[in-house]
Amino acid sequence: MADTPIISIKHVTKRYPGVVALDDVSVDIRQGELHSICGENGAGKSTLMKILSGVITEYDGQIEVRGESVSFRGTRDAEACGLSIIHQELNLVEELSAAANVFLGREHTSSLGLLNNRKMNAETSELLKQLECDVHPQAVAGSLRVGDQQLLEIAKALSLNSEILIMDEPTSALTESEVERLYRVIDHLREKGVTILYISHKMDEVFRLSDRITVLRDGKLVKTLNKDETTPREITHLMVGREIEEIDLGDSRQIGDVVLEVNNLSLPWPGHARAWRLKEISFQLRRGEILGIAGLMGAGRTELLECLFGASEETPAGKILLENQPVRFRNPNEAKRAGVAMVTEDRKRLGIFAQMCVRENISMCTLEETVTSGVISRKKEAELVDGSVARLSVKTAGAESSITSLSGGNQQKTIIGRWLLTKPKVLLLDDPTRGVDVGAKAELYRLMDQLCRDGIAIILTSSELPELLTVSDRILVLAEGRMTAEFDRSEASEAAIMEAATESA
Amino acid sequence: MNSGNDTQATTSFAKRFRNELGLIVALGIVIGGTIGANLLMNGSADYLNEPVRNLEDILHQTALLGIFALGAAIVIIAGGIDLSSGSMIVFAGSICGLVMLILAPKGPDMLPDPTNVGLSVVCIAIGVTMVVGFMVGTVHTWLITIVRLPPFVATLASLVGLRSLAKILNQAVTAQLGNQVTTVRADDATFAYLSEWWVALVIFIVLGILCWFLMNGTVIGRHLYAMGGNEEAARLSGIRTDHLKWLAYCIGSVTAAIAGVLYTAKVGAANPSTLAVGYELNAIAAAVVGGCSLQGGVGLIPGVMLGVLFLRVVIDSVAKIVRAGSDDYQGMIVGFLVVLAVAFNELRRQGSGSKKSFFPGILGSITIPILAILVGTVIFVLTQKTQGVTVGIVSGIIIGLLLGGLKLTESARAQRT
I need a labelling partner for A298 at 20 to 30 A (CA). Which of A131, A386, B158, B161 fits? Predict the structure, then answer.
């Protein structure tokens, strides 16, 4: 029995109209191992996990669990088989309590058929304790931090006695300390004999945790390797099909005059104990410079960018000078006209227009330029869009393809392209590489560098410190809405930034 | 190379206007079916005997509904909903009638005589009515964008409120003028020209072309689609979503005001108790049948125009077949078509229609007899002959058996997989 793999994926193929998402993939998962699945976005990782967890029910090929062929008709079938998935985008009912979420659909009831909340709360409490999570079982799920919400999902999986846990990029929204806690939880789960399928493209995580690593590329299985017999470099090489050259950016960039000056910017937070989302922030931004903003979740990174873009809920206090002129944007439209552009953090929710094509997504901000006598000129629009697609090398079947057919990195490029057409002086990038694969990240870094050389000033936030350290000229650190440090490129280090980011006010 | 492009162009045309082409085919089937049924049952078909009168009648009804259905569709595409149009129609008609009454010359009994007010007064009345339409749209937008009411609530309030306001306003103004009534007369000779069938049709077609131009050709149109698809992304793209909503809701209420003037001219009076009751749902239904998604961001103006035509033709055909007042069947037909249209789109979106189970589990088992009873009742009502009850029961049982059989094959298939 020990030799029978717990999951055996045999020749699985999944076709979507026009795309082969998975092409004859066969992998064995051994009992009790932590098996990482690596690949760029669009490599087929998520599709494979959706098949394993019963979200996708139609595919060619065979899945065996513990040697028996299975065909799940829904996530419940998969759960009954001991398979649970923690999605990248968490699946919690935000209005319900932690305990209600853990037992959603499998509520404990008393003999009268009423909900047995006491039992559910007690069990949730016990599960969360195992996970080092001090959340009260009656806390509303929506009020929890992302890291705690994720542990709640894990608690749910544990309460199902899942033997196999699939984790889809679990660290993408976590702070460093939450990531450490997650690692401890994973170690704990492994001691209990849980088999874990771990999806990630962060090499440090993969190499810290895995026993074996499977690499997918363009829907095909590239290779399954033992961790001890490979290197991060080899894996990234296999993922993109080529070596990623060490990026050397920022050298010999000409930094010019001050474009943007922020003095004592504060953003009120009505009805909250802290009263201020942002408190007295001052900095300058120069032409041709990339200013990185570091900070933990909730430190106010996004809020700061929103203030500069006129998109904040409340009106910020303090002064903003754009090219020495005081500005006070009441809405993003005014910011756009003044030459400020913002690429938002949550691409799916705040960036793309899902039912529109690539052309319409790119031309959205600059349609006025294509108008001849009141009508949008398709020809001018196409010229504008083709120029952007070529400049940013967006990989698409054509400008008329649906935006949703593009990979995350390419979607991000179309949104950056949309804003570059407005010829901005200041470009605000809010975590632009989130959910973007390694190859596309390097391209985005190179693009930022090029834009700076063309005289644009960039403010960049990121949840990944190495990224900020690679591309920024200067780094500001926010902690709980205050600016706690400012580093030059030469003096910044991960340790120094983390120290400033965790400094409490 | 060239031919390749051509086929690509034709396929993308067929794909883009799939819904519209489908509606045209469906129209042909319905008209053909009605003629066939009439010929079979009576040996003659009204559509063949009096094609001109029938055409005029259908086109008049289509145009009247179509005018405010265009407005409703634009609001829906923009991601909102306007429930107020039925009441807006009668409110607009009342305002128009009242203005004419106020400006009418006094008759020998010292009461205003609205039968011959002259062209300029008619123009002023219509102008005032349009302004009122704009005012209602503006208040809707204010409630939605500033007070932050959901569009459903804001326009529902108008739906209930405007009809009542029209009634009270009519009474109050006519009392001031000397003779208190609820129904305002609007039977001026010049005004009556507006009741010609082609007037409504011309206005409908012109409005349709304007809307198509707006939605398909201009920046504003593209932005309306964008806002309907993803409002927050539109705002963060520097689109003035508040201004766009203002435009959309004003188009919604002004088109309803235009329809209000025309309906009032047709009837010769504006009666708040009976005029245009429930029409808002007909307009929304026409938009949905025409391919608009209630989620917003989807829908084409030609589709909406065809949707209206289709809705009216089906209502008319049923009236022809059962030879009864079409108004009685209207709600039933509209309800049926909306469910059918949305279900059809949903099935097409899901793609794998053939493998879908329609009657799974207990819900399915209980739905089957309910549907059988419903079909039996409808057939009983439609036949309305002495043996109607028997026909109804028999057809109900047949439908029940057919659906039961379908359920059995479905569960057998589910067992196998």
Answer: A131
Are residues A314 and A232 located together in one domain of the fold? no
* Interface contact flag, B297 A333, Cβ < 8 Å: no
The single-letter code of the amino acid at A495 is: A
pLDDT recorded at residue B2 = 40
Residues A120 and A231 in one domain: yes
Indicate if A225 and A272 belong to the same structural domain.
no
**Residue B148 touches chain A, beta carbons under 8 Å:** no
pLDDT interval class at B382 (50, 70, 90): confident
Residue A47: partners with Cβ closer than 8 Å, 6 or more residues away: A14, A21, A22, A56, A219
Note the pLDDT tens digit of each residue in A409-433.
Answer: 888 899 999 999 999 999 999 988 8
The 3-state DSSP class for residue B276 equals coil
CB contact under 8 A, B230 and A354: yes
Q: Which residues of A touch B233 (CB under 8 A)?
A: 344, 349-353
**Average pLDDT, rounded, for chain B:** 88
Which of A106-110, A315-319, B253-257 is predicted least confidently? A106-110
pLDDT score, position A1: 42
**B357 contacts on A by Cβ (under 8 Å):** none
Q: What share of chain B is helix, strand, coil (3-state, %, to 5)?
A: 80, 0, 20
Instruction: Report the domain count for chain A.
Output: 2
- From A183, A209, A240, give the residue that closes a domain: A240
Same domain, A112 and A215: yes
Does residue A84 fall inside a structural domain? yes
Q: How far is CA A355 from the centre of its chain?
A: 22
Taking the CA of residue B362 and the nearest CA in chain A, the distance in Å comes to 18
Look at A333 and B239 and tell me if their CB atoms are within 8 Å.
Answer: yes
Q: Does A350 contact B223 at a Cβ distance shorter than 8 Å?
A: no
Decide if A71 contacts A63 (C-beta within 8 A): yes
Task: Give the DSSP letter of residue B144.
Answer: I
The full 3-state SS of A392-447, as one line of letters, equals CCCCCCCCCCEHHHCCHHHHHHHHHHHHHCCCCCEEEEECCCCCCCHHHHHHHHHH
pLDDT 10s digits, A158-194: 888 888 999 888 876 677 777 888 888 889 888 888 9
Expressed as residue numbers, the domain containing A482 is 258-339+424-501
Token pair of A423 as six digits: 């010829």
pTM summary value = 0.79
DSSP reduced 3-state for A461: strand
* pLDDT recorded at residue A233: 81
Question: What is the C-alpha to C-alpha distance for residues B301 and B291, in angstroms, rounded to an integer?
Answer: 9
Structural domain includes residue A137: yes
Give the distance from residue B257's alpha carbon to the nearest chain A alpha carbon, in angstroms: 27
Q: Cβ of B177: how many Cβ atoms within 10 Å? A: 17
Within a domain: residue A410?
no
What CATH number does the domain containing A333 carry? 3.40.50.300
Contacts with A350 from chain B: Cβ below 8 Å = 230, 232-233, 236
Query: Which member of B223, B233, B240 has the closest CB to residue A350?
Result: B233
For the stretch A208-244, pLDDT in tens is: 899 999 998 878 888 898 988 888 888 877 877 655 5
Distance from CA of A16 to the nearest CA of B (A): 11
Which of A208, A240, A272 finishes a domain?
A: A240
Do residue A331 and residue A212 come from a single domain? no
C-alpha distance from B293 to closest chain A C-alpha (Å): 11
